[in-house]
Write a structure and sequence with these properties.
With 297 residues, this protein is mainly alpha-helical. It has a domain at 85-172: Alpha Horseshoe (Serine Threonine Protein Phosphatase 5, Tetratricopeptide repeat). It has 15 helices and no strands. Helix 8 runs antiparallel to helix 9 (157-170) and helix 11 (194-207) packs antiparallel against helix 12.
Length: 297
């Protein structure tokens, strides 16, 4: 508990000093130039030599509103735990019902697990999935209540923070949502949701026209989480930031970032080669060049 109290005190300082990355480089241009230069020097990917991580390829994101939220962890537990007990079977059954859209049956499985095995190591996972069911039903207050029962020493606590933030976002309560996202990125930087939390942080700051804070969050994804599936989002929203932010606006930098995104797609880089954002980037680049670079055409 003391560890989290100390970290939360640090968070209060972090919220007001989030543009630290920008200050370390003194100029925002330096940051982008470093990213562009480093990317330009990369050797094209040899597709035959890439070792792919198969651990999180089974599940698809089904809950709203996040677009990219890992769900493979619970399933991996069943692969490594040997013969599953009744509680593990209940959890697996509940997840399968959830993914097939049978929410009532899914909820019953999780309720049965919590009722029959309150001390189960899968209890908090069940609470997370119960909360996701309530999110699917747009019952955000119920979801938040479910997530709040997970203690801060639980391995599911970061997921509880993230999903609580998602609910708060959906309810329009942006400040407490932002606080939860920042807690995750500060307290649990190694967690599988840390990069998702940073992405949401960046998007919130973008919508609030706080360009420096948004840039700091997005650049942190690029620097620290380039193997995560949010990396294409980070490049895209960084380009959008330079295209439209009232303070940082630089259409030439935005253009370079769009082109860099497409170059990564062409090189077959992981999370870019099949990015759902590719068509959007192509359209945004085309529009940008039509409006601002007509003389070059």
């Amino acid at each position: 508990m003391k560890k989290h109290i100390t970290a939360i005190l640090a968070l209060s300082l972090f919220i007001f000093t989030i543009p630290a990355i920008a200050r370390d480089y003194k100029e925002t241009e330096d940051i982008i130039n470093r990213i562009l230069k480093k990317s330009d020097q990369q050797v094209p990917v040899d597709k035959n030599s890439v070792v792919k991580d198969e651990e999180n390829t089974e599940g698809e994101t089904t809950e709203e509103p996040s677009e990219k939220t890992p769900q493979g962890k619970d399933r991996d537990q069943f692969k490594t735990s040997g013969v599953p007990g009744a509680d593990a079977v209940m959890l697996k059954t509940g997840i399968e019902f959830f993914n097939s859209g049978h929410l009532a049956s899914s909820l019953k499985s999780f309720d049965d697990l919590l009722s029959k095995y309150p001390q189960s190591p899968y209890a908090d996972s069940s609470r997370i999935w119960k909360g996701k069911i309530f999110i699917k039903k747009y019952q955000y207050d119920k979801a938040i209540q479910e997530f709040s029962t997970i203690k801060d020493d639980s391995g599911e606590y970061p997921a509880a923070l993230f999903n609580t933030a998602e609910c708060l976002m959906a309810k329009g309560q942006l400040e407490p949502a932002l606080e939860n996202y920042q807690k995750i990125s500060l307290l649990f930087p190694e967690h599988e949701l840390a990069d998702n939390a940073l992405l949401q942080t960046g998007r919130l700051f973008m919508s609030a026209k706080n360009g420096n804070q948004a840039m700091s969050a997005l650049i942190r994804i690029i620097q620290e989480y380039r193997d995560r599936e949010t990396i294409d989002d980070a490049y895209y929203f960084l380009a959008k930031l330079y295209e439209g932010d009232p303070v940082l606006r630089d259409v030439e930098t935005a253009r370079k970032l769009y082109k860099l995104f497409l170059a990564k797609c062409d090189r077959g880089e992981e999370h870019f080669k099949n990015s759902p954002l590719k068509e959007r980037v192509q359209n945004d680049l085309k529009h940008l060049e039509k409006v601002y670079f007509r003389l070059e055409q």
